Amino acid sequence: MRGEVVRFPAGQESLSVQEGRAAAERALAVPIADRAAAARELRLEHPEVLLALCETLTRRIETAPASVSEEAEFLYRFLERPARKIGEFDEREYFLGELALLAGGANRILFRREDARRWFDRAEANFVRVSNASVHFARLGYQRLALAMEERRFEEVLELAPAWSESSRRLGLLEETLKCRFLEGVAFREMGDLPRAGEVFREIFDAARVANESKLLAPAANNLAQVRRLQGDRDGALEYARQALELLKRADSQVGLVKLRWCVGDILREQGKTAESIDAYREAVREAERVGMRGDAAAIHLVLADSLLGAGQEAQAEWEVRAALPIIDEEQMVPEGFAALSLLRESLRRRKIDRQALRSLHGYFRE
Amino acid sequence: MSSTFSGQSREAASVFGQILPLIERALVSNYRLPPKEATEVEQRLYDWFQRFCRRPGSRHPQSLRSELLLMACRAGHVYSVSKLEDLLSTDERLKRSLSLGPEVIAIEIERGLAAPAPQSPSTEDDS
Question: Which band of pLDDT confidence, cut at 50, 70 and 90, is reported for residue B84?
Answer without folding.
Answer: low
